[in-house]
């Protein structure tokens, strides 16, 4: 008898931290947003799967992996768009079938969070869907518009605050190099991004994450067209580090519980620290990278 199979719509993309222990569960296909830099979902027609089919996959995973599942990540690009009742049903069923499950997470666009009431978010968190990965990309509204992110800094700050209040761990990503090598635009991207991170500061002690990725230019995307037509000039590794330095420098010294990471495969220099404690250490490491370019990851080792 052939073993049962989980449903996947390739290509599958997930956060690096969901790589090892997580069951990747297809809740939605593609993404309901179309950002200019995004590769994995550009050719997928967006769809939300039936809760019945998602629950069948939760059962199939039990047959395949017994009681080994400790984390579930809901695919694809913004599974958090689903209705609160459906997310709660999937989450509760996941914990019922997988007794060792400790966390369920999903990608969420700021609008997917803001459309839900504080009460609904609290119920979602209580059901065990307690972490979201949100693409911030930049705090600069002009740049958010250019990359067709369909949100702005105010909405992004609101989404983070709603997550903090509801008990959903907020993990935001920013993209270095997104503004290109124009000095003035890179400076605006850096300063506005730092300002936005400051506005995301939770009122009470809370663990949350900010991760910096470095812009990749995926083939066949609108952002590749911008590069080919010389509208966007990619940054050098040196410029990327200067931009990263400016962001960290402008982040306030008293951020509550924010873990900063730039250890993604797309980055030139791996970094990790708690911002309120390690800011100076992070800046020193960046300065060393700026002074010793031979210590940076070579271009051909970078990847998404
Ligand atoms: C797969 S996307 C899903 C984001 C989610 N739909 C949202 O709107 O927040 C996850 C993240 O990967 C990063 N990413 C995607 N394409 C990228 C690229 N070409 N270069 C660098 N980072 C990229 C962005 O930070 C993006 O938010």
UniProtKB/TrEMBL annotation:
Record-linked Pfam families: Radical_SAM
Keyword hit for S-adenosyl-L-methionine: yes
SUPFAM superfamilies documented for this protein: Radical SAM enzymes
Domain of life: Archaea
Entry cofactors: [4Fe-4S] cluster
CDD domains: Radical_SAM (cd01335)
Keywords: Iron, Iron-sulfur, Metal-binding, S-adenosyl-L-methionine
Domain Radical SAM core: 17-252
Protein name: Radical SAM core domain-containing protein
């Amino acid at each position: 008898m052939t073993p049962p199979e989980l449903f996947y719509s390739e290509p599958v993309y997930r956060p690096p931290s969901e790589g090892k222990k997580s069951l990747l569960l297809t809740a939605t296909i593609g993404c309901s947003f179309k950002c200019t830099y995004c590769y994995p979902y550009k050719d997928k027609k967006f769809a939300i799967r039936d809760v019945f089919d998602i629950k069948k996959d939760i059962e199939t995973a039990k047959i395949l992996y017994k009681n080994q599942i400790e984390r579930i990540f809901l695919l694809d690009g913004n599974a958090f768009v689903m209705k609160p009742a459906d997310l709660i049903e999937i989450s509760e069923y996941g914990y019922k079938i997988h007794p060792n499950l400790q966390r369920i997470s999903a990608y969420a666009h700021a609008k997917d969070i803001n459309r839900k009431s504080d009460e609904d978010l609290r119920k979602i968190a209580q059901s065990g869907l307690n972490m979201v990965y949100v693409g911030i990309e930049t705090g600069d509204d002009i740049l958010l518009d250019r990359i067709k992110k369909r949100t702005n800094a105010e909405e992004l700050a609101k989404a983070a605050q709603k997550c903090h209040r509801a008990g959903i761990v907020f993990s935001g990503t920013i993209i270095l190099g997104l503004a290109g090598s124009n000095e003035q635009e890179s400076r605006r991207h850096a300063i506005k991004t730092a300002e936005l991170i400051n506005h995301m500061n939770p009122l009470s002690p809370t663990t949350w994450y900010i991760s910096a990725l470095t812009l990749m230019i995926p083939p066949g995307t609108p952002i590749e067209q911008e590069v080919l037509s010389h509208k966007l000039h990619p940054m050098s590794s040196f410029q990327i580090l200067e931009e990263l330095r400016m962001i960290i420098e402008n982040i306030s010294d008293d951020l509550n519980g924010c873990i900063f990471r730039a250890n993604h495969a797309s980055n030139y220099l791996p970094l990790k620290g708690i911002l309120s404690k390690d800011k100076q250490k992070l800046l020193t490491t960046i300065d060393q990278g700026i002074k010793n370019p031979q210590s940076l990851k070579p271009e051909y080792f970078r990847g998404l």
